[in-house]
Amino acid sequence: MTDGTLFRPRRSVLYMPASNERALEKAKTLPCDALILDLEDAVAPDAKPAARDAACAAVGSGAYGRRELTIRVNGAETEWHADDLAAACAAGPDAIVVPKVSSADEVRTLVAAMAEHGAPESTSLWAMVETPVAMLHAEEIAAASDRLTVLVMGTNDLAKELYAEHVPGRQPLLTGLSLALLAARATGTAIVDGVYNDVKDTDGFLAECRQGRQMGFDGKTLIHPGQVDGANRAFAPSPEAVEDARGILQAWEEGAGSGVVTYRGRMIENLHVESAQRILTMHEAITALEADQG
Ligand SMILES: CC(C)(COP(=O)(O)OP(=O)(O)OC[C@H]1O[C@@H](n2cnc3c(N)ncnc32)[C@H](O)[C@@H]1OP(=O)(O)O)[C@@H](O)C(=O)NCCC(=O)NCCSC(=O)C[C@H](O)C(=O)O
Ligand SMILES: [Mg+2]
């Protein structure tokens, strides 16, 4: 038996401008695993103070049920950052998302500021990695603090900084995506993929979800409610994968003591058993989360 409570699904992580009242309301009913209440790119400069208040009120409302609730503050180089961070720490969301983190020192500074502002221990730091410098320092960023629990890919900013084009298959971004993934897995940090900008292009979106899942991402950041179901399906183990995992564990138990068994004609060693256990842990955590649709 595996323990699904140790695994937090982050298949679908939906951004919304914290200035958008309808979106804040709608999010209470959406089956996404996590929400990012945005104060950064999606909010116009003159709307930022009101968006900050709305995000903090949303966190305090307790109206978002099982969804992991986070606030994305403006970047450290901006005039809004200090006020955003202080307000977010006081509100105590599940995490504070910080854009354009490019070094381990920045992570340590943010963690110290969170402690100074009295952020509850339950509030983690999610670092957005979205610059060439961040890709080249991804491992030290991810390892800089235990409070940093998730790396968030910022593929729009990364493409902009690289002078790259958005193309199907994302070939120009693959080196950066892979470096960030290596850093996440090497340090035991979760990692979610970047957004797909064309909210009307379902086929393109689903193809990018499949690519992200195949590469190893835990989930995808989203910008529209219409993207939630596709991401939830893509980043969950399929029924076939769950059945296969159960079969592998059973074959392993039946062959107790031998270092290698076969299942459906395939060689099964300890490493396959660990992967099967991981799939079942994910499946149980998702089942538990979906049973609690609040
Ligand atoms: C992209 C949008 C501007 C489209 O908005 P709209 O035209 O209003 O969409 P719809 O009419 O289809 O909306 C239908 C209903 O759904 C609600 N809605 C829309 N989007 C969201 C959302 N993100 N979360 C929750 N609810 C949402 C609408 O209010 C409608 O509700 P109702 O009328 O009651 O039925 C819009 O989707 C949007 O603003 N998306 C989020 C944009 C955003 O947050 N961008 C910043 C994050 S992405 C980023 O920064 C990337 C990163 O940094 C990088 O570098 O890559
Ligand atoms: Mg960005």
Automatic annotation (TrEMBL):
<keyword id="KW-0479">Metal-binding</keyword>
<dbReference type="InterPro" id="IPR040442">
    <property type="entry name" value="Pyrv_kinase-like_dom_sf"/>
</dbReference>
<dbReference type="InterPro" id="IPR005000">
    <property type="entry name" value="Aldolase/citrate-lyase_domain"/>
</dbReference>
<dbReference type="InterPro" id="IPR015813">
    <property type="entry name" value="Pyrv/PenolPyrv_kinase-like_dom"/>
</dbReference>
<dbReference type="Pfam" id="PF03328">
    <property type="entry name" value="HpcH_HpaI"/>
</dbReference>
<dbReference type="InterPro" id="IPR011206">
    <property type="entry name" value="Citrate_lyase_beta/mcl1/mcl2"/>
</dbReference>
<dbReference type="GO" id="GO:0000287">
    <property type="term" value="F:magnesium ion binding"/>
</dbReference>
<protein>
    <submittedName>
        <fullName>CoA ester lyase</fullName>
    </submittedName>
</protein>
<feature type="domain" description="HpcH/HpaI aldolase/citrate lyase">
    <location>
        <begin position="11"/>
        <end position="225"/>
    </location>
</feature>
<keyword id="KW-0456">Lyase</keyword>
<feature type="binding site">
    <location>
        <position position="130"/>
    </location>
    <ligand>
        <name>Mg(2+)</name>
    </ligand>
</feature>
<feature type="binding site">
    <location>
        <position position="157"/>
    </location>
    <ligand>
        <name>Mg(2+)</name>
    </ligand>
</feature>
<dbReference type="GO" id="GO:0006107">
    <property type="term" value="P:oxaloacetate metabolic process"/>
</dbReference>
<keyword id="KW-0460">Magnesium</keyword>
<feature type="binding site">
    <location>
        <position position="72"/>
    </location>
    <ligand>
        <name>substrate</name>
    </ligand>
</feature>
<feature type="binding site">
    <location>
        <position position="130"/>
    </location>
    <ligand>
        <name>substrate</name>
    </ligand>
</feature>
<dbReference type="GO" id="GO:0016829">
    <property type="term" value="F:lyase activity"/>
</dbReference>
